[in-house]
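User: Can you model how nickel (II) ion sits in this protein?
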Amino acid sequence: MAVLKLQKYGSPILREKALPVKKVDKEIKELVDNMIETMYVEGGVGLAAPQVGVSKRIIIIDTEEEDVVVLINPVIIKREGKSEEEEGCLSVPGVYSPVRRSSKVTVEAMGLDGNKFQITQEGFLAVALQHEIDHLDGYLFVDRLSPAKRIMLKEQLKNIE
Ligand code: NI
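Assistant: Here's the modeled complex, given as structure tokens:
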């Protein structure tokens, strides 16, 4: 396993729409292993492949209870409720802010075994799923803040860039 280089705010790959994974092969499994290693070393609770410079639709979430959840080609198929939890991102170091999202989501994805599955999560993990899936579409959590809040963060973001 290897720790991969994190892409930070300003990196063009974070703004791309990541490509779907067609088949879970050895290369994908190795990438996921390295993403997990990177997430633990960097101290994140989730990670998306574009954050390590790979424009593929893969995210991982640390549930703390069980194994890391690996979601390939994840799609949110159901949303419920509203939440506003503080978020941060390994690609936007030092910036934290509440973000408005759904409080409960159901996501359909492919697992490392190549089979489709669904998970429903509430609270913190629901937020993490939405945050990581956003990465696959080129969005960062700071894009979801109010214009006033974004102006307040402008200097901080410029410094990361
Ligand atoms: Ni992030």
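A couple of observations from the model: Residues 89, 91, 131, 135 surround nickel (II) ion (CB under 6 Å). The chain has a mean pLDDT of 95.
User: Helpful, thanks.
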